[in-house]
Structure formats: structure tokens, C-alpha cells
Amino acid sequence: MKATAKAHTNIALIKYWGKRDESLILPMNNSLSLTLDGFYTTTTVEFKPDLTDDCFYLDDEAVVDTQYDRVSNFLKLIRNYAGKDNLFAEVHSTNHVPTAAGFASSASGFAALAAAAARALNLNIDDKTLSTLTRQGSGSACRSIYGGFVEWEKGEQADGSDSHAVPIAPANHWDIRVAAVVLSSNAKKVLSREGMKRTVETSPFYSSWVDSIPNDLNQIKDGIKNKDFEKVGAIAEMNCLKMHATTLAANPPFSYWHDTTMAVMHAVQELRESGISAYFTIDAGPNVKVLYLPGDENTLKQSLREIPGVHDVIVSKAGQGISYL
Ligand code: DP6
User: Fold this and answer.
1) How far apart are CA 37 and CA 1, in angstroms?
2) Does any ligand 1 atom lie closer than 6 A to the CB of residue 285?
3) Would you list the domain boundaries of the chain?
């Protein structure tokens, strides 16, 4: 009853921002992401009859805090699904997601955990069901089941049975790249879970955000299909700015941006004016991700590294979905 799975992280081009059900992790809006080759988690799950509780090791260290609770709660859910409530697991996870790069390791983390646990329990489920289960660990993780461009359909059912990811285009459809711009100072004050909750509850901009999503999605899917980089980039950048605008009007208001975040945003816009096609997106933290095409990689890397306050630039191609080792 042992299995190992590998899952890549993903970057949202149309953001998941806000839940309609906190405990089932059901989103208010559909979202769309690109799975990234460069950043991943590998996880081994072994169910052992002699264990009296779950244990979780991250990068070889035992985890006991709220991170442990989230993992153990998720194992409880998947055990329950398998009808094996009394079986505990030893979990070993290795993150190949540099924390400094500002990617939430929860996306690759919960996707790898779900896949390894399902296989260790001999669950014979399809990727759609796996994505539905993964969603309940961390929302954005449900998109990491698939490679390339992926949409998370919010679903309509109250029990969440139709809220899962679907593949839009595989990684080899289009060589679009992402540069993670690592800033020197990286404190994240408001966690995404807390930030989106506060925004849903208090921001007067929130309903406009939700209303604007269907059009953004239609446009970006059209852009992906036709490999129209300017279209995809412009929509992703605008969608990111809209998401962050909702936080400015929350009560109490907050922002994930630092001054270097803004310097990078401006630099990307200036690079565009000078003929380099690049667009930014930002998640619930200060770091910036820049979308670009392979021909611009060297110039872009160099320009971004020159911005004061930028610590590093890590580039990635599109990546594959879940695999088993
Ligand atoms: C800004 O998936 O980390 O990155 O479902 O509460 O675990 P929970 O939240 P999480 O939120 C990600 C938010 C985001 C946008 C996105 O990835 O779509």
C-alpha cells in the first residue's frame, strides 16, 4: 500500500479568487492555469497497519503544525472515500519549488499527495475524480493534475462533485514560458485563503470581479487555441490586476505588492514598448511571474535581473500532469 507521485505547480492566468463553500473548497469563479515544468513536488504515501496516526515529513523533517493538520485532514477525506477509515499513513514529500520563487507549494503538494494516496489505496479513479478530490486539499492544486493549459470548472452542484479541472491544451501545444522573478524581501502577510475570504466578504469590487470572468475566459481560450501571445498575455495581465484591485477595497484593505513588485510590473510594460513581448501575473504574494516566448528569453532574463531589488530570475517551460514514479 505504497505509491509515489510527482506533480508540477501551476500559474493561474485567470485567477481563482474567492470561495462559495469554504469547507468543500468550491470557487466562485472558473480559473485557468499553465502547469510549469520547472517546479514540482514528489510525494510517497505508505499506509501501514501498525500506525496509530498519520505522520508527515517535508524535505526529511517531521511536520507538526497547521501544515500537518491540512495533510492529515486530506488523508482522512481520501481514506473515507476508499472506505478505509482506520488506516494511517506515513507521508514523505520533497518540494522542488523554491519557496523564494513565490509559488505556493500547496498546488504541487496536494496534487502529489492526492495522487500518491489514491494509488496507495488502490483506488481506481480517473483524473477527473482525482482532481475533484485534490480540490479539497487546496483549490489551485486540482489544476495540477493535468499538464499544459488547464481550466478549473467551478461546477454547479452543492456537493462539489462537478467542481474539478479539465485539460484545455497539452504542454506541447505551444512553447510559452514563465519567468519567476524572485524579490529580495519576500514576507507574505495575508495568506491566500484568508485574503480571498476577506475580499469576498467585504470588497465592493468583488461582484464586478466575478461578473468579468466569463468574458476573460472566452477570450483567453480563444487566444490559447490560436497561439495569439499578445491576446493571452494582455488578458492574463489584466485579470491579475483586477484580482489585486479587489484586495485594495477590502476591509481592512490589503495589498500583496512591494515596491519592487511595482518596479518589475513597470519594467515589463516598458520592455513591451521596446518590442519585447512580455506580460506579468502575480499571485497572493509580492513576486512577479512574467510570460514570454522562447526567442526573448535571454534579453528578458537579463533585463529583469538588472532591476534593483530583484534577487533571481528562474525560468520554466510548460509542464506535464501527474506522473507516478
Ligand atoms: C491567488 O489554492 O492556495 O494563487 O484553496 O484556500 O488552498 P486554497 O487557496 P489556494 O489559492 C490560490 C490563489 C491564487 C490564484 C490561483 O492560483 O488561481
Assistant:
1) 28
2) no
3) 2-174, 177-316
Q: Would you say the CB of residue 283 lies under 6 angstroms from ligand 1? A: yes
List, for residues 165-224, the tens digit of each pLDDT value: 999 999 999 999 999 999 976 666 788 999 999 999 999 999 999 999 999 999 999 999
Residue nearest to atom 12 of ligand 1 (CA): 140
CA of 48 to the centre of ligand 1 (A): 32
Considering the entire predicted model, what is its pTM?
0.97
pLDDT digits (tens, 9 = 90+) for 222-271: 999 999 999 999 999 999 999 999 999 999 999 999 999 999 999 999 99
Q: Return the sign of the alpha-carbon dihedral for residues 55, 53, 104, 168.
A: positive
CATH number of 2-174: 3.30.230.10
Q: Residues 6 or more apart from 69 whose CB is under 8 A from it?
A: none
Q: Which CATH class is domain 177-316?
A: alpha beta
Q: How far apart are CA 44 and CA 33, in angstroms?
A: 25
Cis omega (within 30 of 0) for bond into 286: no
**φ, ψ dihedrals at 55, nearest 5°:** -130, 145
Contact 108/141 with Cβ under 8 angstroms? Answer: yes
- State the pLDDT at residue 187: 61
Query: In the structure grid, which three cell numbers stand for residue 94, read together?
Result: 520533497
Instruction: For ligand 1, say whether the CB of 192 is within 6 Å of any of its atoms.
Output: yes
C-beta 163 within 6 A of ligand 1: no
Cβ–ligand 1 contact at 29 (below 6 Å): no
Gap between the terminal Cα atoms of the chain: 14
Q: Is 9 in the pocket of ligand 1 (CB under 6 A)?
A: no
Contact 145, 128 (CB under 8 A): no
How far is residue 180's CA from residue 310's CA, in Å, rounded to a whole number? 11
Given the CA of residue 191, which atom of ligand 1 is nearest to it?
A: 3
The rounded distance, in Å, linking the Cα atoms of 218 and 203 is 25
256 lines ligand 1 (CB under 6 A): no
